[in-house]
Amino acid sequence: MTGRVQNMREFRKVRTFGGGAFILLLAIMVMLSGCNNSQKTTEAEKTSAKTSNQEIRTIKHEMGETEMKDTPKKIVTLELSFVDSLNALGIKPIGISDDNKKEMITKLVGQEMDYTSVGTREQPNLEVISSLQPDLIIADAERHKGIYKDLQQIAPTIVLKSRESTYQENLDSFKTIAKAVNQEDAAAKRLSEHEKTIKELKSKLTVDSNMTVLPAVVRDTSFQAHTSSSYDGELLERMGLKNAIQQELPHAEMNLEQLVEIDPDVLLLANNEGKLLTDEWKDNPLWKELKAVKNGQVYSVDRDLWTRYRGVVSAEAIAKDTLKMLGEE
Amino acid sequence: MKVLCTAIAGAVLLILGILTSISVGASDIDASMVLKSFFEADSSKEQTIIRTLRLPRALVGALVGANLAVAGALMQAITRNSLASPQVFGVNAGASFFIVSAFVFFPNLSSVSLVCVAFIGAAMGGMAVYSFASGGGMTQVKLALAGMAVHFFLSSLTQGMIIFNEQAKDVLYWLVGSINGKTWAHVNMILPWSLFGLLVAAMFSRSVSILVLGENMAQGLGQRVYRIRILAGILVIILAGSSVAVAGPVGFVGLIIPHIVRRLVGGDYRRIIPFSALFGALLLVYADILARFIAYPFESPVGIVTAMIGAPFFLYLAKRGRNIKQ
């Protein structure tokens, strides 16, 4: 009998201890969410539609059609490539989802720029966007499909491929943006300039046509190859550089064995911040046997420029980078 | 006799599985080369792949499988509940949450401290579920509900962290449970914990067996129920925590294997524990081979395969439990 009582007591001890653990978890959660909740909340306001007698432009995009009057002045962009596109047309957005990293935008535009951060690209803050009273929102087809309706309530919204876009799709998006901001002529001029620039850089690049390149993003636990269908992969193909992985899917997670099997001539590694999987691989004798390693053809490239920005201006910078790395020595 | 046959069959299948695991992969290596690499080592590319990549990976698979299966068996004994497993009990989710937090806030942690972080998380997740489910007698339904609630709560925290940190996106693949690309460093990370956990579990298997008879009976037989429970709980945390730290939360192994083993060798934990280790290793090694073919030539996380096998099994167990009660 006493045994049972004692047992009950101990049982209760476990329960209260477990309850304590749960409360501790809750406390941790509150702390964590506190870290991320620095954005100010503002009363949602609807923009008053300006009435004007200018002609109406219909912009076709990934989620339908949006009608635009006038030339939009206050633009909010929810992906980095749209900032690049507007930058190419000399337009400054008033709101950018910059993942709360201002320096990333400064690097993209090439100078300090005044704008309001509207949160992360993954979860832009609708209240902040609405408080800016924009007259155009440019959103990504993959990330922002779910909030398209909400964005439309705030301002005319166009949804374009950016995040998972190919190089060609990115150029198409550029044209659509140009139409939305009423700058079609300037965009056409800029595009032909762009094509010329890429062609010029390509002609300066003399490489063996059998040579294979593999751009990849390296993080602490993964090595993600960018294939011939990825943005940077396709751009490199345009420059006459054959991607080591020819396939329809833009990305491929790889381990060292697969890399050894594919054995590209050139590795272009966009390294993440912090620990890297390749540091581990470097200790393996197989790494030293890679053609790219043996011939000193492993380059590290800027992660933001090569894999995040995507746009007319950025593509030219990537192409220049490539020429610098692989051009005649 | 039947037990001996099962042991031999299991061991042979495990060895075959490891050999197959070593010979299947992105580059073509035939079986004779695999055998040769054990007796005549050279520094050819094939043998280097076998020695530095495929063998450690197969071993990590076997260790993680053994760990999770024994952890599951112990949990089913402590709770006397056939649905208990590291996953249902929030142990995996707790360890995952803590590891993802560590990734985000302390990205340069050493692998040893990562294992410790996983232990703390595993303990917290497990105790939270235990405290919710045990009030007024632990029934199957209460355990399942409390387990799922805590599991989803912790998963949502983990997901939230990933959404707010582009940096943590990387963890998504790991979160399904994967032994792709594991090296000797990972073997070293998990091996001491595995050996310790599995040996101690085997040593105390007799006491664990008595625990299953019920508290009163166990006390009558002179067992200190509370102490055994605590010890088994610590073993679960070590076994499951070290597995999650290395391979991510691979699901369902700890649930399925003890049931299969009970069918094969009976309800005595002196047999269930070593056999769970053997068959857990077996399941994960074969599941990992299958995982390589889902999106060949690219790798899929092994957790997808165990979930595909495990989810129907879980439903089967839940249904059978209801029928017995009626």
List the helices and strands and how they pair.
The complex is a heterodimer of chains A (329) and B (326).
Chain A: H1 2-36, E1 57-61, E2 64-68, E3 75-77, H2 80-88, E4 95-96, H3 102-109, E5 116-117, H4 126-131, E6 136-140, H5 148-154, E7 157-160, H6 167-180, H7 184-204, E8 212-218, E9 223-226, H8 231-238, E10 242-243, E11 251-254, H9 256-262, E12 266-271, H10 277-281, H11 285-289, H12 291-294, E13 298-301, H13 303-309, H14 312-326
Parallel strand pairs in A: 3-4, 3-6, 4-5, 6-7, 8-10, 8-12, 12-13
Antiparallel strand pairs in A: 1-2, 8-9, 9-11
Helix pairs in contact in A: 2-6, 6-7, 7-14
Chain B: H1 2-23, H2 31-39, H3 45-79, H4 91-105, H5 111-133, H6 140-164, H7 171-176, H8 184-203, H9 205-212, H10 215-220, H11 225-247, H12 253-265, H13 269-294, H14 302-325
Helix pairs in contact in B: 1-2, 1-3, 1-13, 3-8, 3-9, 3-11, 3-12, 3-13, 4-5, 4-6, 4-11, 5-6, 5-11, 8-11, 8-13, 9-13, 12-13, 13-14
